[in-house]
Amino acid sequence: MDNPVFRTEGLTKIYRTGDVEVRALNGVDITLHGGEMTVLLGPSGSGKSTFLNIIGGLDTATSGTVHFKDMELTSFSERRLTQYRRDHVGFVFQFYNLIPSLTAWENVALVTEISPTPMTPDAALALVDLGDRKTHFPAQLSGGEQQRVAIARAIAKNPEVLLCDEPTGALDSKTGIIVLEALARINRELGTTTAIITHNAGIQEIAHRVVSFIDGAVSQTHTNATRKQPKDVVW
Amino acid sequence: MRVLDRKLVRDLGRLWAQALAIALVMACGVATIIISVGSYRSLEDTRTAFYDRYRFGSVFASAIRAPRHLKPRIENISGVVSAELRVVEPVLIDVAGMTEPGSGLAVSVPDFKEPSVNRLYLRYGRMPEPDRENEVVVVEPFADAHGLRPGDTFDAILNGRKQKMNIVGVVLSPEFIYAIGPGDMVPDARRYGIFFMSLKGLSGLFDLDGAFNDVTLTTLRNADTRQIIDALDDILKPYGGSGAYDRDDQFSHAFIDAELDQLQAMSSIIPPIFLLVAAFLVNMILSRLIALEREQVGLLKALGYGNIAIGGHYAKLVVAIALVGLVIGSATGLWLGRGLTRLYAGFFSFPFLIFRQSIDLYVLAGGVTVAAALAGAAKAIWTIVTLPPAVAMRPPAPSTYRSFFLDQIQRLGLFSQLAIMALRHLIRWPVRSFLTALGTSMSVALLITSLFSYDSIDHMIDTIFFQADRQDATLTFVADRAPEALQAATRLPGVLRAEPFRQTAVNLRNGHRELRMAIIGLPYETDLSRILDLDFNPLPPTAQGLILSERVAEKLQLRPGMPVEVELLERDSRTETVTVSGLAQSYVGLTAYMRLEALDRLMRDGARISGTRVSIDGNEMENLYGVIKETPAVASIALQGNSRRAFRDTIEQNINTMMTVYIALAVIITFGVIYNSARIQLSERARELASLRVFGFTRAEVSSVLMIELGIIVLSAQPLGWLIGYFMSWSVVQGFASDLFRIPLIIYPSTFAMASLVVMGAALVSALIVRRRVDRLDLIRVLKTRE
Fold first, then answer.
1. A4-227 classified as CATH 3.40.50.300
2. Domain final position from B244, B261, B295
3. Which residues of A touch B400 (CB under 8 A)?
4. DSSP codes joined into one string, B1-35
5. Number of folded domains in chain B?
6. Does this model's pTM top 0.80?
7. Any chain A CB within 8 A of the CB of B430?
8. Could you read off the pLDDT of B584-612 as tens digits, one per residue?
9. Chain B stretch 390-429, residues whose beta carbon is closer than 8 A to a beta carbon of chain A
């Protein structure tokens, strides 16, 4: 695990609304390693989502740098950030963000059509055990199923990193565990570097490493000596 | 201000672009109502006032030579108020500075008193004195065209004698509000002049002392003109009466009627288009606004606001938009209406213009607009009113999509997932998609309906001037002459070819249907002036029988092979039966053709000709003009080349203004529909589109989802618009058809293309404006919120 995928130095994000200035990130230095599953913990407003958005190329930093492998994301133009997301990053969100007018299979194909080295949509859906639901529209799927389609869509491009913002936030414990199992399996079998945001402290036990955020800064980092299986997580 | 009203003001502030787009569509509706109804009223009121004050006649007739002592008999016809017996003669006019001879009409005015019928409005100067030789008053358009004022003179050939006419006044007549010269299709004030001189003077010049050849009657308001016409015909029959007619057949009156019909057609076709589109747009944005505010409405209901307060809140929003439209539309309508009325002032000769701004017009326009807006809002408001508060506070059930046939296509891999998204969304709301396409198609239809007339007129010019009447000039003799006159015409300088024609006024009758018109006799080998069959092929006049123009055959319900009664008005109404031998195309007037020899036989006075049609060597034009001005036998000359140019000029003057106005209207509809449609799509799909951006789709790719859907709507609107435009044009043509002229329904492919290009261009610009919003989507905020 010595190959750093993300390296941030002095990462700072300041939001200005009129005269009000909010420091969402205040000089964050973190390194995320290849194949590692990291859980980002912290209360609302602690800066973990802002961090994820910046390393995912959705937002830009006010100061500091982010390196993805040997590329400096913080110097990227809007166009290059789009290309970066397209080629390297898979996203999973709390509210799934599936396209309601596309079936499960088509939601996945949406991404495989534009990525350079995708797996087939069927393979991606099989990875999340949804091979039999592929012709269903999102409205015909349960929340957990929708989230697994979202995961299949995120990983179908064979991304180097999988960024998940509260992936189980809208789910009950039983469904949440199924989703976490899918994430763990992807990380294990494909070696995808995975970062999961949660404020559910129980989930941290499935990670290799846990990074805690408070007030826009990293308060502590620790490595789990032994990782729990998702099914053993106390919700 | 109540809190809900504050929300209203803020909502309007937020939705200003969409609200403005709708208000503009409404404004077009208001403006077109005010322009069409307002101009209709102005024109009608002006005409009525002019007629009333200047005693415009109700029945008109002419004769060859009738004694003046008939006056008491004519005035004794039941229903007749007064009769003005006049001398009216065609003349040639020669004004300094004009090389070509002009045509004109000399009309008598009674000596020492005002005419009892068709009084003159004296603009400058005074009326002619009976004992002062050759004093005339001329109509204002002719005076203005030549800069003539009292004290100036011009030459006229009256009954073969050249006379110097002294202008003492400039007048306007209710009889000649719209006047065109022989062979012309639009007024040409320079080449066609009407002047009035004393009865004594004019009678003397035409050897009509103690006689008259024209009579105009005023009648009681409810008099039966049909009976008066019959009685007058009986009186004038022995004196060469050529059949009396009422205002409907009076040229100037009938032409203004046609213009009034056109305005009425405009007011019944165009404003409803805008109001329907506006209602649809209101429905579209209000449904979306209410869908977005569903939970707020639930909350308001939970707080105890009643249905009327909530329904009223949204109704106020719509009424506010309608009021903005009303203000913009009223101002534009007022401005353009004045412009149109001024245009009429140039086209028609009125002494004054009544541009009445009555409040009721604005009340009508406002009422109709607000009603249309509320009708559009009704369904959306009803939805919200009937929603129980507990249901309203829950988010709506997610949209369900269906695969339809797309699954099969999907397997073929023809469409990208982005295209599938667009197609499924389109099919998900079929009614809305259809109405959006229909709204867009209305702009296409509007453009076609307003621009097709130029195609039709172009076709008419080609048919009339290049296929049928190909002569350069038509010379009409003072009276019918022996065929030798043709040789004389051939010898005129510059005349390359001369062809004779004979014409006579007739009444054609089939059972109880009858039409007053002229039969034109043409030689078999006629080449300059050709009869065209219904397929526009030259049709030589048949040895026997009568060829009728389509309109005449239609009105008399005649088909080839059927007999028709011909009452010869210039032969004491002797009636003969002739067989219809063919049908001809004709766009102007009512016509019937015969072989020259056949007409001679019918008339029983041997070979005679009424005039000749000539082709002229362009270089000899001036010489020819010079000779014709001195030729007493020529009563009038129609110069087809000048007519064609004048016609084209008039059309071209109008086409740019009209094009600009109609393109602006079409662009406003298209913008209203497409901009709102795109904004609503964006509002519904912001989340999806932001997700696409997150997955790494470029801005162009993300926008393509919207663009594909709008593109399909706009493209499918084109054939729909062509179809609707075609039918609207067809109904315009039907509404226009009169005995004076008929517009053929000709729409060139270029007009369809032009209409589509304008609309597609406007749609593209509207969509691109919305595209800029796609580019500025806030990815993070959209993803953090639940729909």
1. yes
2. B244
3. 137, 139-140
4. --HHHHHHHHHHHHTHHHHHHHHHHHHHHHHHHHH
5. 4
6. yes
7. no
8. 988 887 889 999 999 999 999 899 999 99
9. 398-401, 403, 407, 410, 416-418, 420-421, 424-425, 428
